[in-house]
Each structure stands twice: as structure tokens, then as C-alpha cells.
Design a protein that fits this description.
Helix 1 (13-21) packs parallel to helix 6, helix 3 (80-100) packs parallel to helix 4 and helix 6 packs across helix 7 (215-223). Strand 5 (105-109), helix 4 and strand 6 (140-144) form a beta-alpha-beta unit. The chain contains 7 helices and 9 strands. The protein has a 7-stranded parallel sheet with strand order 3-2-1-4-5-6-9, sandwiched between helices. The chain has a two-stranded parallel sheet with strand order 7-8. The chain is 38% helix and 17% strand. With 226 residues, the chain is of the alpha/beta class. The protein has helices at residues 13-21, 74-77, 80-100, 121-134, 158-173, 186-199, 215-223; strands at 2-6, 28-33, 44-48, 65-68, 105-109, 140-144, 149-150, 184-185, 210-213.
């Protein structure tokens, strides 16, 4: 199969990329990034893209699976409008182009608590994105709902850094239905996404289905062999 990875330079996407490249079932991995990748690999087809004019890169969407790890923060974006543009519009446009170009599966990095009716702006944007991509009726839409993503970020996020320090203790108290709110290593989420791609039966995808991956689901997928 051929795969397109969006967000390859981000926290989770940067872990997904080597995993996808190492997967024997995958013939090619396309990436679209705002800045050039330094990684080189025989399977890798890396291109720079203007995400405000994503249709110009539509030929890179002629794949079987799209893995979307795009995302920013309000601080990075600089405004709510810009945040919405990146976290909603870019991802939705990618999903639309992928569906039009024949992609069978779309794996979306979202967030726990995502809901179009949420009073929290971040969660509402994520929820609206899920709603709008669901309406495209992919044969498979797999939505990942991790809690706080842990790992070494290229940029410093003060609030998230503070939460990351206490999250291992908080996780102990998040049991039962609350376990979905546990912090999780970004590398673990990446392993889960790669394993899900590896295990896909594309020929068996016929009708639209939506799957949600919460904390326990993500751990189970990440631990799947090999």
C-alpha cells in the first residue's frame, strides 16, 4: 500500500515516519511539509506544500491511506482564526482531497474531549473537524483520542511541560472511565497508528465506518506485534 503522512515534523508524526518507512507492507510514504525534510529513504517521497493551497499538491494524495497528525497551539497560531485554519481547515481539506483521489482510510489525530458542542475552544475545533470528516464517508475513519501527549517537543510549551511533570502521578488516579484522560507518550501513539496501517485489510473496506481510539485502545494497538 501507499501512505501519505501529514504532520511528519511534529511530535507524533516524527515518530510515525520511521515506523511507516520500516513497514514491509508499505511501498511508498509521501509527506507534505512546510519545510524540507532532512531524512532520505528509498520509500520516501517528500515534498514541500503550501497548506493554504493544498490542491496544488493533490497528486500526493493518490494513496491508499492518509495519516493526519497536523496540529498547532493557540500560542503558535497567534489567533483563534489561525488556529482554526490549521487544526480544522487544513485537515478537512486534506481529507476531502484524499477521498476524491481514492484513499480508503483516514487516520486522524484528534484529542480526548473533542466535541462540536464543547465550551472549550480547542475541544470544539477538534469536535467540528471530526464531524466534518465523518460526513465525507471514508470506508474507514480512525480517530485517535489521546490525552496529554508526552515527549520531547521542538518548541517549548510552558503549560504542557508543567503538566507532563505531574502526569505520571495523575495517571495513577485516572482509572475506569477516566483512564482515557491519561497522558500518553507520543511515541506510543505513533506505534499504534503505524500498527493500524500495517494491519489494514483495504480490500475489506466497503462501507463507511468510524472507529475511536482511546487510551486503552491506543496501548493495545501499540503493543501489537511485530
Amino acid at each position: 500500500m501507499n501512505v501519505l503522512l501529514l504532520g511528519a515534523t511534529g511530535l507524533t508524526g516524527s515518530h510515525c515516519l520511521p515506523g511507516l518507512l520500516a513497514t514491509p507492507e508499505i511501498e511508498q510514504v509521501h509527506t507534505l511539509t512546510r519545510r524540507p525534510l532532512t531524512l532520505q529513504h528509498p520509500k520516501l517521497i517528500a515534498a514541500e506544500a503550501d497548506f493554504d493551497h493544498l490542491e496544488a499538491s493533490a497528486h500526493h494524495f493518490e494513496v491508499d491511506v492518509v495519516v493526519c497528525c497536523l496540529g498547532t497551539t493557540l500560542r503558535q497560531a497567534g489567533s483563534r482564526d489561525r488556529f482554526y485554519r490549521v487544526d480544522h481547515d487544513y485537515c478537512l481539506e486534506a481529507a476531502r482531497i484524499g477521498k476524491a483521489r481514492g484513499a480508503k482510510a483516514f487516520l486522524l489525530m484528534s484529542a480526548v474531549g473533542a466535541s462540536p458542542s464543547s465550551t472549550v475552544f480547542y475541544n470544539r475545533v477538534k469536535g467540528e473537524l471530526e464531524r466534518d470528516i465523518t460526513a465525507l464517508h471514508y470506508p474507514l475513519l480512525s480517530i485517535y483520542h489521546p490525552g496529554l501527549l508526552l515527549g520531547n517537543r521542538q518548541e517549548h510549551r510552558t503549560g504542557e511541560a508543567a503538566m507532563a511533570r505531574v502526569m505520571p502521578v495523575l495517571n495513577l488516579g485516572l482509572i475506569g472511565p477516566l483512564s482515557r484522560y491519561r497522558g500518553i507518550e507520543s511515541e506510543m501513539v505513533a506505534h499504534a497508528m503505524v500498527n493500524e496501517v500495517r494491519e489494514l485489510n483495504l480490500a475489506g473496506l466497503s462501507s463507511a465506518q468510524v472507529e475511536f481510539r482511546h487510551y486503552e485502545d491506543i496501548l493495545a494497538l501499540a503493543m501489537a506485534s511485530p
